[in-house]
Structures are given as C-alpha cells and as structure tokens.
Design a protein that fits this description.
single chain; 158 residues; alpha/beta; 16% strand
Length: 158
C-alpha cells in the first residue's frame, strides 16, 4: 500500500499526482483525461482509476467510480479522501454522497464545476487545488474532442 504523507501531514500535491498520472494514461489511451484516487485518512492509497468510458465502451466508468471500485469494499468511507483531477460530475458526486466519503480534493473546477457546491452543502470537505496542470490538460482535451467531452458530461453536442 502506497503512503502519501509529510511528517504526519497529508501531501495533497503527491496525492493529486497519482490522479494526474491516471488522467495522462487515460488520455494516451484515447479517453477522457480524468484520473482519481481514493485514500484513507492517513494517506494510504486504497485505489486509483481513470475515466475509461471510451476505452471500455462503458458510460459508468468515470475516474472516481473506477478508483472507488478498485479500492474494494471498505467498512466505512467517512474517513476516506477522493482525489480527482476534475470536479466530480453529478454521477460521481452522488457516489461520494451515497457512501459518505468525507473529503474530496479537486485538481480543478474551472473547466467543469460539477457537483462541488452540492457536495459542500452536504457537509463534504472539498478542497479545490486549482492545478494549472489539470486545467490545461482538460482544456486541451475539450478543445480537441468536444464530441466526447459533451457525451461524457451528458450534454448535447454543440
């Protein structure tokens, strides 16, 4: 089990780096570059994943759902941290609320705000790191593949 910590304090940049690595892999595979990772409260990596909707022809494989599934069953999710390169969509925000994941670290929400405010209203601690790296990766993808992006977020193509 990987551990991300710095003298007892969680290193959010290191945690985000795991999600960014997944997003880059997804982009290289021809998919939507959203990566995620689920950690326990001490910073131990439980599962990591990426949006695989295109690769697996499965509309339910978003970055957060992939990381969540790969983490396996947990007795309790209240003390887990979901780290994602992009603000979670409504589908993934629902997963976070359903299982009461206590904290969400967002790489960026400029390109897509998703359900961040809805999560905060439900008492989820959300930290937006506003990562330039995440913003630029997603912006480039949206410009290059608006058809796949719109499909991913459930919007009609322009």
């Amino acid at each position: 089990m990987e551990r991300m910590h710095d003298m007892g304090k969680l290193d959010l940049d290191e945690m985000l780096a795991v999600a960014i690595d997944e997003a880059r892999t997804g982009l290289a595979e021809g998919g939507v570059p959203v990566g995620a990772a689920l950690f326990d409260i001490r910073g131990n990596l439980l599962g990591r994943g990426r949006n695989r909707r295109v690769q697996e022809d499965d509309p339910a494989v978003h970055g957060e759902t992939d990381a969540f599934r790969r983490a396996g069953r947990q007795k309790n999710y209240r003390e887990t941290i979901m780290v994602t390169t992009l603000a979670p969509c409504w589908f993934c925000s629902g997963l976070i609320r359903q299982f009461r994941i206590g904290r969400v670290i967002v790489g960026e929400s400029r390109n897509f705000a998703g359900g961040v405010e809805w999560l905060r209203e439900a008492g989820v601690a959300v930290t937006d790191l506003d990562s330039t790296q995440c913003v630029e990766m997603m912006r480039g993808f949206i410009e290059a593949r608006p058809d796949i992006w719109n499909e991913d977020i459930g919007e009609e193509p322009p």
